[in-house]
Amino acid sequence: MSLLSKTLDRVKPSPTIAMTTKALELKAAGRDVIGLSAGEPDFDTPQNIKDAAIAAINAGQTKYTAVDGTPALKQAICAKFKRENGLTYEPSQVTVGTGGKQILYNAFMATLNPGDEVIIPAPYWVSYPDMVLLAGGTPFVVEATLENRFKLTPEQLEAAITPNTKWFLFNSPSNPTGAGYTRDEVKALTDVLMRYPQVWVMTDDMYEHLVFDDFVFATPAEVEPQLYDRTLTVNGVSKAYAMTGWRIGYGAGPVQLIKAMAKVQSQSTSNPSSVSQAAAVEALNGPQDFIEGNKAVFQRRRDLVVGMLNAAEGVTCPVPEGAFYVYPDISACIGKTSKGGTLIDSDEAFATALLEENGVAVVFGAAFGLSPNFRVSYATADEVLKDACTRIQAFCAELN
C-alpha cells in the first residue's frame, strides 16, 4: 500500500514558489541574485491597518471566530461591494478565508464532481488548474494569445463550453499578464454565458485596484446583473493593501454556495486569523487614498520594465492594463544558445539559464499555460528593476 494519495499524481508544486526558492538558495550561497518571481507588493502595510491589529490583540480578540468570517468583516465586505462595484450582498452571502486561494479552493471542493469541467483561460495563475484537479474536476484550458493581448475572445469561450462545463474562471487584471478586460470586453463574454445557464462564473478580482492609465475595472456580475445568482465574486486585501502575509481573502455569491464553502472550511482550517480579520475591517473601511499613490509607483515601474524589455533582443513585451506583472514573448530567442552553453529550447530553459548565468529569477511561461514567455513581477524598487532588466538585455544580446 502506497503512503501517498494518487490525487497528488495529478498536481505539481507551484512553479512560482519553486523559482523563488531556487533564487534564495543561490543568494544563500553568495550569488548576486535579483528575484522577480514573487507576486508581492514591496510596500509596507499601512499604519492604520497595523494599529487596528494591535488594538484587536490588546482587546483580547485572539479567540476563534465564526468559521467563515466575523460579522464586522462581512459587513465591511458588503459595504465594499456596494460602494465600489454596485453589488448588493447580505452577510449570509459572504465568506472569508485564509487568502483568496482558499476561497477558490473551497468553491471547487464544494461544487466539482468527476467529469465536471472548468474553463480556464491561459495564461493563468499557476494554481488554478491544480486546484481543479485536487477537487476532482477537469481543467479545460483555452489559450489567449499575444495577438489578442492575452484576452479570451467570446468565440473562444463559446467553443469551449460543453455539457460538462460547470465553471468559467475569469481573472482581470490577470496574473501573469496584467491584461485587463474593458467593460465592453466583459460584456461580450457575459453575453455568451447568458446562453448557457448551467455555467457558473468564478471571477478573481484580486488586482481590481491596481489598474493604470484610463482603464476602468469591471466585474461580471456588475456588467450583467442577470449573472448575479450564478457568480462567485472573489477578492481580498493582499495586493491593494499590501497585506499578503495577513492571509485574508473573501468571496460573495448565492447563499447555497456560501454555506457549502463554509462546510468545507469548517473541516479544514476553520476561521482565518482573528487579528487579521480585524485588520481587514480597517483596510476596507478606512482611508483608501494611499492606493492611488501606490498605483502611480507601479505604473512608473511598469513603463520602465516594458521599455527596457522591449529593448532586449528577441523580446516582445506588451503594455499591461493592471496588476504588477509583464509577460514578454521570447519566440525569437528559442533555438539559440546562451553564453554559458545552454540550448534555449523552451522558456523554462531560458529562465533557468537567466538565473544561473545572469542572476535574475523570473518564472517561465509554461508554468502559466502559454509559451514561450516569462513573467516578471515588477513589485520591487526602480533601481533593482533597472539592474535586472539590464541583465536580461545582456543575456539576450549574448544568445547566438
From TrEMBL:
User: What highest taxon heads this organism's lineage?
Assistant: Bacteria
Q: Supply the SUPFAM superfamilies for this chain.
A: PLP-dependent transferases
Reaction equation(s) it catalyzes: L-aspartate + 2-oxoglutarate = oxaloacetate + L-glutamate
**Example GO molecular function:** transaminase activity
Report domain Aminotransferase class I/classII large positions: 32-392
Which CDD domains does this entry report, sorted A to Z? AAT_like
The record's keywords, sorted A to Z, are: Aminotransferase, Pyridoxal phosphate, Transferase
Q: Which top-level enzyme class is recorded in the Swiss-Prot or TrEMBL entry?
A: transferase
Q: Does the keyword Membrane apply?
A: no
Family in the record: Belongs to the class-I pyridoxal-phosphate-dependent aminotransferase family.
Please give the name of this protein: Aminotransferase
According to its UniProt entry, this protein's organism is: Marivivens donghaensis
